[in-house]
Amino acid sequence: xxxxxxxxxxxxxxxxxxxxxxxxxxxxxxxxxxxxxxxxxxxxxxxxxxxxxxxxxxxxxxxxxxxxxxxxxxxxxxxxxxxxxxxxxxxxxxxxxxxxxxxxxxxxxxxxxxxxxxxxxxxxxxxxxxxxxxxxxxxxxxxxxxxxxxx
Length: 151
Prior knowledge:
Elements: H1 3-15, H2 17-23, E1 28-30, E2 41-53, H3 57-60, E3 62-75, H4 79-94, E4 102-109, E5 112-114, E6 119-133, H5 135-144
Parallel strand pairs: 1-2
Antiparallel strand pairs: 2-3, 3-6, 4-6, 5-6
Helix pairs in contact: 2-4
């Protein structure tokens, strides 16, 4: 997945005042950058992604991508707190509120408790779709034809 799409997911979560109120601030992080140190908080990560070229790929260089992302909800307070945060995330994502994406489906969730750290953890997994244009190849094709209008 392009980093832009994952950033759009994060930005959508951070823009929701109900979610940030439940978190007590802007505590939505990329999992690669920070593991949960603030509680409650949310971390995002890509788990897998498929990509299929459209029938007209040779002309328009468009692919339909279908990523699977994991959003982890972390709390030291209670399982109920993780449920409330997860419900707010579900409402945002399943309503297709992330720019340039579509067909959001929650594929799984779980309730976990990590006894050694006393942390409640609720991993949520979602699949969705977005269209990607392989712009470098698209532009190269026009350059080869001597057309430079696309910049």
